[in-house]
Every structure is written in structure tokens, then in C-alpha cells.
């Protein structure tokens, strides 16, 4: 197959057939198509797009390029959750053990940081010894034993997507809806799910900031799920400010542990409960979302969810003692308070600037081969709308050294914007704005 011809045809607005997508993805996974040609095709897709049938064909081609989990023998529903990416978004760390503790199997397959956003795998690997690179067979055994496995995309699962995922980050084609949808759904469908819940971020820190594009992505993935008999529900949530207070790998694990103990920040808990409710309903473990919320609150209050997280950590090679003593997580050697430079109202805490600041501290990657320092990051206590006085602490910088502290201050100077008066600050987006299903779009009711 002449790949150059396919690139040229797509560049000019033409279509690729299902057979061409299948051969192309198989050859790319096998190393027979070079990255530079796939990069050119990704850029053509970015500008020209794919029609609905092509998105489905690309999804199927990436799905069929590898193996799948076999979970039909499980007696409970199998539901995963996916976030389109954010800053401070540690929801997956809380949801996986919480939903599993309530009676649904959760094969939580996650990725690494992409662009300015953090990655669940990097957060999990901040736990000393934790292995995310487990095989399909290990994941299946964990799901039998604990109803939960927290893993990365193995070389066996959708290998064409695994290569393309890294290439998109390096070629500035992350924001393409067809590529996002096909990437997410090829991995999730390989898990043998009976349901999927999506957290589609909107706002300045999201890959797709605009509401209409977030809704388009949600509808696209819901349709792809329907093609494969996998019901999908999407919530649109705010990413015009970080979620929770902790931003960085180890500190986000600590905040997730706090959430499982019942002391997590209110915004983190609201998003967690909302997503978890749909997971439990899809998985057949709750009658409705209110019943699901009650079950999750009980699992946290009884300590059952935290104990299951501890068991998962131990089963995947990590130190389970971190759940009882988060001080065993990596600790930053240099810390400093970031204080308000003047009095005023917090007008904005810009998540992209925070995410880039974490990378500058060494907590993210600019190249695939970069080493991540798990202890660095920020704990940001300032929230949009807060009235502060000059000198009030707004955040804590966690760094490796003095140079890191300086880089952290520079990042927060850009991220935290002060206004003279509360009326000068734009109101933040609603934490949860819409719920999307195969039946359509509904506005979120009362933040339930």
C-alpha cells in the first residue's frame, strides 16, 4: 500500500476505506510505516477531519491491531471511566477503588501526561513500587480477585493507538476530535466493557475549551460505543481552574487518599460522585444515581473503599502503607509559600499555566524519554472569587531545589490573576454543566 497516496488523498479532503485504515494501522503498529508519514496523516486529519464512518473505521482498525481483555466470565458489570485531561484531575485514583468497592468491576486503563495535563499512570507510579505495566493476564486475575486493576496501555492492546498517542503530542495534533475519539474508544472497547463513563473537560485548561466542541466529542464517542454495544454516558465538567487543591503526582495521590477517607475537597468529591453514580448504574450495582451516591458514601464512611485501594496497591507491587501514612510518598526537598502580591479578588487560577509550571519543575515531560520527579508540584488553596489581602498564602510550591522554587513562583505569577473587585472577575464555569447520553443532552440539575 502506498502511504503517500493515502496522505495526499486525505489532505485533499478525500476518504480512506475501511480496508485501507485496517492495513495502515496494522503496518504502523508493526513498524512498517514510519512516524513521519503518520505525522503527516495526523496533521491532514487535524485540518480536514474524518466523517462519522471514517472515525468508526479508524477506531475499529486500532482496536483490531491488538489483543483484548476477556472478562465475560465476571458475574458483575464491567465499567471504566475516561477523562479528556486536566490539571489536578486525580478522579480516576478515587473512582477505581470506590466503584469496585460498590460491586462493579473496573479495568481502569489510563495514560501518561499529555501536553499540559497530568497522567494517571505517572501519579500511580509516585507510589513506591507500584507497577502499571501489567499484562492482560495479570489485569484479568486482579479483576477476579479485587474487581479492579489500574494499568497502562500494554503493547498488546491497540498498539497502533499506543504509537499514535505519543506522536500526536509531539506533532501538535492532540486537539483533533476524530483522533481523540478513536484513541479513547479503541482502548476502552478493548477492555470488554459493559459500560463507559466519560469526563469531558471544558474551559481554558481543556484540550477542547469550547462547549460545542466538548459536546461534539461526547456525542461522537457515545455513537462509537453504541456501534459496539457499549453504552456510554458523558459529563461535561469544568477545567477553567484546577480540580481540587493538589497539582502534581505524589501530592495528587495524597489528596486521592484523603478523598477515599472522606476528607477530599468538595469539588473533587462532587465530580467523583457524579461520575461514579453513572458507573454504578451502568454496571447494574445501583437502581439510580441517588442510590449509587448513597452506596459510595457508605463505602467511604466504612473505610471499605480505602482498604480496597490498599489491596490494589499491594497486588500491583506498591507499598500499601501509603494509605495509612501518605508521608511515605515522595517528598519534595524544597518548599515555599506563594503569597498574594497585593490585595484583591482571585479572578482566575489558570490551569494551563499551572500544568506547564509542573513540567518546568520536573513533574511532567516535554519529551517521551524525560524523567518525571514525582514529588514536585503545587498545593493551591486560592479559589476564584476568594478575597485576599497582600501577603496571604495562596499556594505551596514543592520543588527539587531553589531553581525549582523560582520556576514555581514564575508559573504561579502567570496562573493566579488578581482583580481589584469581585465584579471585575469573570464567574467560573459550573463544575458540572451537562450530561450526555444516547438519548441526548441535558443540563446538569442542581450539581447532583
Would you summarize the structure shown here?
With 448 residues, the chain is α+β, with helices and mostly antiparallel strands. The protein has helices at 3-11, 18-29, 35-48, 52-64, 91-101, 120-124, 136-146, 159-170, 177-189, 211-227, 249-260, 266-282, 289-301, 304-315, 351-361, 402-415; strands at residues 79-83, 106-110, 148-152, 195-202, 232-238, 246-248, 334-339, 344-349, 377-380, 387-388, 393-399, 416-419, 432-437, 440-443. Strand 13 and strand 14 (440-443) form a beta hairpin.
Number of DSSP strands?
A: 14
How many discrete domains?
A: 3
The helix/strand series, from N terminus to C terminus, equals HHHHEHEHHEHHEHEEHHHHEEHEEEHEEE
CATH fold-level label of the largest domain? Pyrimidine Nucleoside Phosphorylase, Chain A, domain 2
Q: Find the structural class using helix and strand composition.
A: alpha+beta
So, the CATH homologous superfamily of the largest domain?
Nucleoside phosphorylase/phosphoribosyltransferase catalytic domain
Percent range for helical residues?
Answer: 40-55%
Structure description:
The protein is an alpha+beta fold. The chain has three domains: 3-49, Up-down Bundle (Transferase, Pyrimidine Nucleoside Phosphorylase, Chain A, domain 3); 79-325 and 430-443, Pyrimidine Nucleoside Phosphorylase, Chain A, domain 2; 330-424, Aldehyde Oxidoreductase, domain 3. 44% of the residues lie in helices and 16% in strands. It contains 16 helices and 14 strands. It has helices at 3-11, 18-29, 35-48, 52-64, 91-101, 120-124, 136-146, 159-170, 177-189, 211-227, 249-260, 266-282, 289-301, 304-315, 351-361, 402-415, and strands at 79-83, 106-110, 148-152, 195-202, 232-238, 246-248, 334-339, 344-349, 377-380, 387-388, 393-399, 416-419, 432-437, 440-443. The strands form four sheets. The protein has a five-stranded mixed sheet with strand order 1-4-5-13-14, sandwiched between helices. A four-stranded antiparallel sheet has the order 6-9-11-7. Helix 2 (18-29) packs parallel to helix 4 and helix 15 runs antiparallel to helix 16 (402-415). The chain starts with a helix and ends in a 5-residue tail after the last strand. The mean pLDDT is 94.
Amino acid at each position: 500500500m502506498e502511504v503517500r497516496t493515502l496522505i495526499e488523498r486525505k489532505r485533499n479532503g478525500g476518504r480512506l476505506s475501511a480496508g485501507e485504515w485496517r492495513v495502515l494501522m496494522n503496518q504502523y503498529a508493526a513498524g512498517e510505516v514510519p512516524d513521519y508519514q503518520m505525522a503527516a496523516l495526523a496533521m491532514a486529519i487535524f485540518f480536514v477531519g474524518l466523517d462519522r464512518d471514517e472515525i468508526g473505521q479508524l477506531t475499529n482498525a486500532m482496536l483490531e491491531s491488538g489483543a483484548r481483555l476477556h472478562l465475560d466470565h465476571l458475574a458483575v458489570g464491567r465499567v471504566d471511566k475516561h477523562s479528556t485531561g486536566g490539571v489536578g484531575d486525580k478522579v480516576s485514583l478515587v473512582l477505581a477503588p470506590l466503584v469496585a468497592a460498590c460491586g462493579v468491576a473496573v479495568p481502569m486503563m489510563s495514560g501518561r501526561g499529555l501536553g499540559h495535563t497530568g497522567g494517571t499512570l505517572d501519579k500511580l507510579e509516585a507510589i513506591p513500587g507500584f507497577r502499571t505495566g501489567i499484562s492482560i493476564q495479570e489485569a484479568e486475575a486482579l479483576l477476579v480477585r479485587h474487581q479492579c486493576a489500574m494499568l497502562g496501555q500494554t503493547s498488546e492492546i491497540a498498539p497502533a493507538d499506543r504509537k499514535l498517542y505519543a506522536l500526536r503530542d509531539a506533532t501538535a495534533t492532540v486537539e483533533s476530535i476524530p483522533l481523540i475519539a478513536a484513541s479513547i474508544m479503541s482502548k476502552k472497547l478493548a477492555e470488554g466493557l459493559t459500560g463507559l463513563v466519560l469526563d469531558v473537560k471544558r474551559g481554558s485548561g481543556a484540550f477542547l475549551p469550547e462547549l460545542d466542541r466538548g459536546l461534539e466529542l461526547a456525542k461522537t464517542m457515545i455513537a462509537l460505543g453504541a456501534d459496539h454495544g457499549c453504552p456510554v454516558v458523558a459529563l461535561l465538567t469544568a477545567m477553567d481552574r484546577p480540580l481540587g487543591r493538589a497539582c502534581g503526582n505524589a501530592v495528587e495521590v495524597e489528596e486521592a487518599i484523603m478523598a477515599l477517607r472522606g476528607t477530599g475537597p468538595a469539588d473533587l468529591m462532587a465530580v467523583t460522585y457524579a461520575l461514579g453514580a453513572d458507573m454504578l448504574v451502568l454496571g447494574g450495582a445501583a437502581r439510580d444515581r441517588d442510590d449509587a451516591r448513597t452506596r459510595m458514601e457508605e463505602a467511604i464512611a466504612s473505610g471499605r473503599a480505602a482498604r480496597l485501594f490498599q489491596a490494589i496497591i499491594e497486588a500491583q507491587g506498591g507499598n500499601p502503607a501509603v494509605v495509612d501514612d501518605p508521608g511515605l510518598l515522595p517528598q519534595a526537598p524544597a518548599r515555599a509559600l506563594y503569597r498574594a502580591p497585593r490585595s484583591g479578588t482571585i479572578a482566575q487560577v489558570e490551569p494551563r499555566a499551572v500544568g506547564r509550571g509542573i513540567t518546568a519543575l520536573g513533574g511532567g515531560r516535554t519529551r517521551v524519554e524525560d524523567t518525571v520527579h514525582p514529588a514536585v508540584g503545587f498545593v493551591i488553596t486560592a479559589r476564584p472569587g476568594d478575597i485576599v489581602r497582600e501577603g496571604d498564602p495562596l499556594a505551596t510550591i514543592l520543588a527539587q531545589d531553589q531553581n525549582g522554587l523560582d520556576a514555581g513562583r514564575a508559573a504561579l505569577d502567570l496562573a493566579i490573576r488578581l482583580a481589584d473587585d469581585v465584579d471585575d472577575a469573570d464567574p467560573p464555569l459550573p463544575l458540572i454543566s451537562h450530561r450526555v447520553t444516547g438519548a441526548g443532552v441535558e443540563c446538569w440539575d442542581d450539581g447532583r
